[in-house]
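Methods — Computational structure assignment.
A single polypeptide chain was analysed. Its primary sequence is given first, followed by the predicted tertiary structure written as C-alpha cells.
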Amino acid sequence: MSSTTATRNAIASRFEGLLGSACVVSEPASLERYAIEGSVPGAVLLPEDAEQIASALRIAGEERWPVVPFGGGTHQHIGRVAEDADVVLSTERMNTIAAYDPGDLTIALAAGATVAQARAACAQHRQLLPIEAGAGSTIGGAMAVAATGPLQCAFGGIREFCIGVTFVTGDGLPGRGGGRVVKNVAGYDLMKLMIGSHGSLGVITSANFKLFPMPPVTATFLCEFDSAAALFRFRDSLVKSPMSPLCAEVISPAAAEYLKESEPRDPDSWSPNGALAPQTPWLLALRFAASDRVLARLRHDLASFTSQEIRAHDENRFWGAVSQLEKHVLARHPNAMFFQVSLPISESAAMIEAAEASATNFNFVAGVVGRATVGSFTVVFLPLAIDPPAVTQFAGAASDFRSRLSRAASAVVVRCPREAKHHFDIWGSTPTDIELMRKIKRALDPYSILNRGRFFVE
C-alpha cells in the first residue's frame, strides 16, 4: 500500500469528522473485503446519500487521495492495475428502489441496489428489467461496466433502456442526465457517457429505466452445427427471416464443457497441435417468447437443426449456467484470460478462427460464447500447461489475437492474472479520439482521483 499506517489513520479520521464514524470503515480485518486485486484500501466510506458522496469527493480532491467507486465488487478486476486506493467509496447503503410505476413501465433505482433485487421487484408485476450481471452486482456497477448478457439480442444494452442517471463528479459536483419518463430529450446525453466509463468520470448515485412486459411463455431450441462457419451461415439466414429470438447465443465446444453438470474435461487432455476435434458440436441457443401456436411453427422450421428443446425449470437452469460461465471456468482455471470482443456480425466466423489460432500458438484452448446477432462475444483462453503460464504468454496471446482482427473490432481483456497486466495494454490499441476523452476526464474529474490509472485516459 502507498498509505502508511499513520496516513491511513489520518484519512479515516478526516472522513469520520465529515461523515461520522458509522460511515467509515478503517479496521484492517474489515478492509480486506474491499481489496482491489489484492490491494487493501486505506479507508472505506459508506455514504448514505449523494450529498455525502459529494462532500467526500471534495475532501479527496483537495488531498489528491485516489478513490475507487465500489458497488458489489464483482467487476473490480476489469482495467489496468490502478494506483493503490487510499479511499474506497461504497454505495452499498444506497440500495433502495426510489420509485416504481408499473403502469408507466418505469423504475428508479439507487446505485447500490442489486440487479437481483430490482429484477425481483419487477417480476412481481410480470415486468422485466433486462440487465444481466453476476450475482451481487449492483445497478451502479452494472452501468459502470455496461454489463450485457444474452438478452442483449432483443433489448439492446443498458444504454438503450436507461432513461435517466444522477451522479457526482470527481470534484464533488452533482450531475444528471435524462429523467423519469421515456420521452425525455433535454440536455446532453450524459447517460451514455457514464455507462461504460468504469467509474472514471463520476460516481453514479441513481438511475431510471424503462421496463418491458415479461414474456408469458418461452422456449429454447439448442441447434447443433459441425463448425462455426456452418453456424454463422445459419445465423445469416436467421437475421433475414421473420424470427425474432430473445436470445441467440453462440456456444463453442470448449465453452459447452463448462455448462454441463458433469466435470468439464481438463484442457490438458486437448492436444495443442492443430485444430481441436471436439466431442461436442457448436451450439446456437435460440430463445423465443411466443404463443404455443407460434412455438409450434418455430419447432417445425428449426427441426433439422434442433437437438433439444428446453422449457420451464430446465430452461432457466440452462440460461443461468450460461450467465455463470466465467465463475465456472475460474473455479477450475483461475489463470484463464477473458476477452470482451465487439465487432460487425459479418466478422464473427473470422474472429473465432483468429481466437483458435492464437490460443493454439500460445498453448491455450479458446472457448467462445456470445450474441450471434449482435457481434458481442466473450472469448476465454484456457491454459493448457499444468503450471501457470508465464506473463509473457498472456501478453503474446493477446497481441497475436488482436493482430488477426480487423480495425472495426475491439478485444478488451476483462480478466487475467494481475502480474500479466504490467506487460500489455488490456484495453488494446489507443483510440483515435483519445484527446477528446482526456478533455472529458479533466472536465469531470479535474484532480484525476477516480479510479486513477485504471482507464487509458489519464
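Note: Confidence is low (pLDDT under 50) at residues 271-277.
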